[in-house]
Amino acid sequence: MKPLVAEYGALGIDQPEVPVLDVDQLARDYVAALDERLRSSGVRVVDPPLVDTLVEWAIHRRKPFKQSGAGLQDSLIWLTALNEASNADEVVLVTENTSDFGDDGDPPSLAPELGQDLIDRGVPAERVRLVATLESLVSAIVAPLGQVDARAVRILSDEELAGRLTSALEAGLLYTRMPQDDLELGAPLDEDPQVTGVVIEGVELISARQLERDQLLLELSVFASVTLEALLFKGDYYVLASDTPLRLTDPDFNDHYLEAESELTVRLVVEVATDAAVTRPELTLTQAALAEPNELADLRLQDSRGDAFLQAVAELSAGVAVSPYLPETHLDSNIENATLGTFASERAELEDAESLAGTFAIECTVLVHGRGDIDWTSTAPSGRDLEALGPYVEGGETGAGWINARTESEPIIVLVHAISDLDGWHELEVEAATLEASALRGRQGERGSDSSPDSSLEDAQETK
Questions:
Q1: pLDDT band at 398, cuts 50/70/90?
Q2: What's the confidence (pLDDT) of residue 146?
Q3: Among the listed ranges 87-96, 113-122, 135-144, 182-191, which one has the minimum average pLDDT value?
Q4: Nearest to residue 227, comparing CAs of 201, 202, 272, 193?
Q5: What is the mean pLDDT of the segment spanning 291-307?
Q6: Is pLDDT above 60 for 312?
Q7: What percent of the chain has pLDDT over 90?
Q8: What is the DSSP secondary-structure string of 43-93?
């Protein structure tokens, strides 16, 4: 810095101000920023381990300590890995310093004394894997995990493979015993009920892992509608609650038991061992519980049944009152009548769902979003309204006239009640229609209007 200052002086230039850097504060800021970046990325920063154990390691010059006594940093790293291995399925130690932690093989192996550390803690020696570079980590561990997930997703997304999987699930679940604990049958059974009918309605991937060779183990969440057959002690049946899902099929199966069945929608956890082509999958049912009706109704809105539902709503909505309605054109007068001329359904949003006991049916309330043409009337328009909407004025030759207008492609929400079952959507009833809340609020704000939507739709939109 001094030579630089001298050169400035020789040139007759004022010495520049040199900022004073607080190096310690810069270091603290860097550590804080790095810590925040790691944590925001899901990285868990562990606390330094207790060093009592390291004293004995240093005295005996055992790995990771060198014969010279150096190696404190490496020993702290190993002790951290050792502590983590006690509570993890696998720990990967990435280091180019394989000679202090293991050997120079390709891939490197953990040093025997380090493996013994794991065994002494009751942990398998292979739980810690030694990897020399980040590239090796990606190719040996990260990439195969991605491949497994990609293969699992392909099975569920490919139409042919998903069809094979669905058929395998239905065949594998048929005539199995379904755990009764979470089925809410209303009475304990001496034996779990038997599946006598099953329709798979949806499959979601929970996890996937590689087995030997090309085999995958998929853990799946399976939505299914099942018919269950059960034997129930006669004394238990006659004290069942009235809303039991069990339906009597044989009141005199034998002296002590009667036969009953139930139709339930369930959510299952199923493990499937399969190859990528789903040729000979093997199933294990691990959990069974009643499905939440809203989950199943959402599934039925997303498949071909949902497409048919949207089409039916579009057809039924013609002529439904839109209340209240405010056109984009500012009016002084009130609109007495506004109805949907046409309605193009775009998407369905489940508002509420309730299972009908003992059946596959679900009673639903659905908000259908779309675009509609609205026919509206104002029978007492102001002079300014008549002037602004001249093409729509009728009866002007006999008096003040009235306005019959159509506004195209308005954002509309339609409130629909319907029943959903395996075959589709039935008993659709369009209860009300209104402008999308954002459009209505904007127009009310512009005009200072105190109009509010139909309460049934207003409540529904405000909860979203």
A1: very low
A2: 63
A3: 135-144
A4: 193
A5: 89
A6: yes
A7: 34
A8: ---PPPPP-HHHHHHHHTT-TTS-TTS--HHHHHHHHHHHHHHTT-S-EEE
Residue 247 and residue 258: Cα distance in Å, rounded? Answer: 11
Nearest to 78 by CA among 36, 21, 106, 116: 116
Pick from 403-407, 418-422, 455-459: least confident: 455-459
Q: How far apart are CA 78 and CA 84, in angstroms?
A: 10
Question: Shortest CA distance to 190 belongs to which of 244, 250, 259, 286?
Answer: 259
* Torsion (CA) 239, 242, 243, 244 in degrees, nearest 10: 30
Residues 172, 177, 182, 184, Cα dihedral to 10° = 120
Measured at the CA of 136, the angle between CA 134 and CA 137, to 5 degrees, comes to 60
**Residues 230, 432: Cα–Cα separation, whole Å:** 44
- Least confident range of 164-178, 233-247, 394-408: 394-408
Burial of 117 (0-12, 13-18, 19+ CB in 10 A): buried
Task: List, in sequence order, the alpha helices (H) in 287-363.
Answer: 293-302, 304-316
Query: What is the per-residue pLDDT for 428?
Result: 95
State the Cα angle at 245 between 242 and 247, rounded to 5°: 85
Dihedral, CA atoms, 175, 181, 183, 184, nearest 10 degrees? 140
Residue 268 has pLDDT above 90, yes or no: yes
- Quick check: 369 and 346 in contact, CB under 8 A? yes
- Token pair, residue 300, equals 């039925």
Tokens of 33: 């920023």
Which tokens hold the place of 464?
Answer: 């979203």
Sort 408 into a burial class: Cβ within 10 Å, 0-12 / 13-18 / 19+. Answer: exposed
